[in-house]
Amino acid sequence: MHKVFIDGSAGTTGLRIRERLEGRKDLSLIRLPEALRKDPAARRDALNAADVAFLCLPDAAAVESAALVENSATVVIDTSTVHRTSDAWEYGFPELAGRRDRIRAAKRIANPGCHASGMIALLEPLVSAGIVPASAPLAVFSLTGYSGGGKKMIAEYEENRAAGLYSGGRQYALGQAHKHLPEVVKVCALERAPVFSPIIVPHYSGMETSVMLHGEFVRGGLAAVEECLGSHYGAGNGVVRFVPATELPAVLSSAMLSGRDDMVVTCHGTDERMVVTALFDNLGKGASGAAIQNMNLAIGADEREGLVL
C-alpha cells in the first residue's frame, strides 16, 4: 500500500485530491492533526514518510516544502507555479509525446496550470507537427469557474454572484503577464507568448480554453488541425479525447465537464478562420485530477484510477 501525504490539504486543490483518494484501497493517507498542520518538523516527517507527497501550497511555501524532502524514494508532485519551467522537474501532462514514461520515472513532477493545460493540449501537438509555426501570432481566451481563485474568491462569489459585477464574466490579467504563460511558451516551444485573455465566470468550476487561428498560419487548414488532434488524442487513455464539432452542442459551455477529471478538445471554423477549444474542469484536469493522474503513473497504477471520467 502506497503512503500519500497532502501538504496543504485545506486548500481547494488539496481538498479535491483528498476527496478523490479517500476511497482508494491501494493508498494510505498520512494525516496531521490540525495543531501540527503548519508545524515544520511534523511536515518534514510526513513528507519523508510518504511514497507520494502532493504540494498544494503557494509558490514560496512549495519551495520550502520541497526542500524538506530528503527521502530519495519520495515522489513530489507540486501543484504550484514555481517548478513548472524548471528542467529539474518533469512537466506533468502525460498526453504529450514521450511524457508518460518520463512521468513514470520522475521523482519531481510539476503539475500544469489550469489555463496552461488547455492551451498546451491544443497547441503542443499542432506546433510539434508543423501545422502551426512556433512563430505564429496567437490569441487565446479562457473561461474559468471561480473556484480557480481559491477560498477567498469562492467566498466572494458565494456571497455576491447573483448581484452586480459578479453576475457576469470578469476579465483579468489584462497586463499580459499571467503566470501560466511561461510554461506554455516552454512546453509548446513557442517563439512568442500568446495574447491571453482569462475570464472568470459565475459558476463554481469548469473551463473552456480557445485558441483563435488565422488560416494563413495553419498548414493544411481546418482538416489538418482536426486530423492532428484526432490522431493525437483519438486513441488516448480516456482522460483527453478529441470530439468532432458535429458531435457537440452548437453552443459550448465552460461548465460542460464541471466535476469531472477528463478533457475534450475540438475544432470549429473554416480554412480562413478557426477556433480550437479545450473543455475541462479547472479543479479536474486543470489541477487535482491531473495531480492524481500523475500520481497513478508514478506508482504504477492505471492512470485513470480514482478519476471521475
List keywords for this structure.
single chain, 309 residues, alpha/beta, Rossmann fold, Dihydrodipicolinate Reductase, domain 2, 2 domains, 7-stranded mixed β-sheet, 6-stranded parallel β-sheet, globular
Explain what the structure shows.
This protein is an alpha/beta fold and 309 residues long. It folds into 2 domains: 2-112 and 287-299, NAD(P)-binding Rossmann-like Domain (Rossmann fold); 114-283, Dihydrodipicolinate Reductase, domain 2. It is 32% helix and 21% strand. The strands form 2 sheets. The chain has a 7-stranded mixed β-sheet with strand order 8-9-7-10-13-12-11. Helix 1 links the parallel strand 1 (2-7) and strand 2. Helix 1 (12-21) crosses helix 9 (284-299) and helix 5 (114-128) runs parallel beside helix 7 (181-188). The model has no long low-confidence stretch (mean pLDDT 95).
